[in-house]
Amino acid sequence: MKDDLKARYAEERLPRYTSYPTSPQFNDSIGHQRYEEWLSALPDGSTTSLYLHVPFCRSMCWYCGCHTTITQRDAPIIDYIATLRREIELVAERVSNPLPVRHVHFGGGTPTIMEPVEFIGLLELLRKKFPFEGKAEIAVEIDPRTLTRTMTATLGEAGVTRASLGVQSFDPVVQRAINRIQSFEQTARATQGLRNAGVRGVNFDLIYGLPHQTIESCIDTVRQCLELRPERLSVFGYAHVPTFKKHQRKIDEAALPDSAARYAQAEAIAQALVDAGYVRIGLDHYALPGDGMAQAQRDGVLHRNFQGYTTDPSDVLIGFGASSIGRLTQGYVQNEVVLGRYAERISRGELATAKGYALTADDRLRADLIERVMCDFRVDVEQICSRHGAAPESILRDVPRLKTLQDDGIIDVSGTVVSIKEGSRFLVRSVASAFDAYLGASGRTHSRAV
Fold it and tell me: Where would you tag: which of 66, 157, 256, 414 has the fewest CB atoms within 10 A of its CB?
């Protein structure tokens, strides 16, 4: 691909497509009453995932794009956990049929910022209110800098099966520029402690495109990660959106790499991991060949949700906590983002739904098309359309961007099968966007395609 063409596509601002429609389409016509109706109408046996958002950290990482609050005191965390427990009870009261739980994910913020007894208590409450399947995965996001030995042991005792450790970069220059000082030794100690406690799956999160980052520093970070041999790695491009995340204004924009440098960093990391025996999963994940995610990709059953690529095929995702997003068969719901408003709604005995989206038949069709593009780098439009009772000709005819992508040598179209060329897979979001009926309608600024 020509450099000018590569640069043009790489500069596009596009969603990450962890959902469709994406969150800018959510609106306040979906409130707590609609959410209650949707919960009570869920069919018996709907497989379920639970997401719990814990929006607290001890310090702010300037690159962060999450909804989080900085606190040095434990009181706000204790109060929040009490509210979270009440929300779990309120949701469970509104569910008419048993919902078998396959997956639980604690995200943040820093979920392990809570006391061990509070973590155990939350899991006990979830198990009491929802039936867990025998092999349900329990995953937790962790900041190695604040993980204690007591919490590490607690995670093992609680049956946590997967831990995601934030690493981002081991380059001290980059760490200072993003306000996250984290040594290799801290990460190694956390990794070994988790494995000793019985947590069998360890993930590392890396970021490219950070200030002062170079190909050399990216490769050096990978080299150090490989010493610890995590089962999976996620490698994300830094999304610089200071308009929405004001703390990102502390990052020196002049030190940020351009699109060409970002692409070079991403590919250098990818090559180093593949050379080390990892399987490249979708756009930005890597897994050891024996890992469940690598197997899911081989079997064509990889999925994508708000945590990125996943092996979780559940019909329903219930979100708990401020700003959390849920996905039901009828549509999406999102809780109040501001902690005070979230707590006030729950204290009134009311679900904290602030907005959402009711799915249409066309949305469901396009969501399936986009998910297969993002997971498999190809999609058989006719096969997907047949599941939805739609005509593939109408979809292909109404997607003029496909012709442009084909003319630019990014995709091949054979009959109704759209495939991304091997050397263009880094532009998978550009291809997925061809099926997005809402792109550009919200005026929302997304992150760069690369």
Answer: 414
Going through 121-248 in order, the beta strands assigned E by DSSP cover 132-142, 162-168, 201-208, 232-237
Q: What number is the average pLDDT over the span 386-407? A: 89
Rounded mean pLDDT of 156-178?
97
Predicted pLDDT at 292: 95
- Angle (CA) 315-316-318 rounded to 5° is 165
Pull the structure tokens for residue 41: 């109408």
CA 55, chain centre distance (Å): 15
Nearest to 319 by CA among 7, 18, 12: 18
Q: Is the pLDDT of residue 450 over 80?
A: no
> Residue 127: enclosing H or E segment and its boundaries?
helix 116-129
- Residue 348's SS3 state is coil
230: pLDDT strictly greater than 70: yes
Produce one character per residue of 409-448: b if its CB has 16 or more CB atoms within 10 Å, e if not: ebbeeeebebbbbeebebbbbbbbbbbbeebeeeeeebbb
Task: Identify residue 74 by its one-letter amino acid code.
Answer: D
Mean pLDDT of the chain: 94
Mean pLDDT along residues 264-288: 96
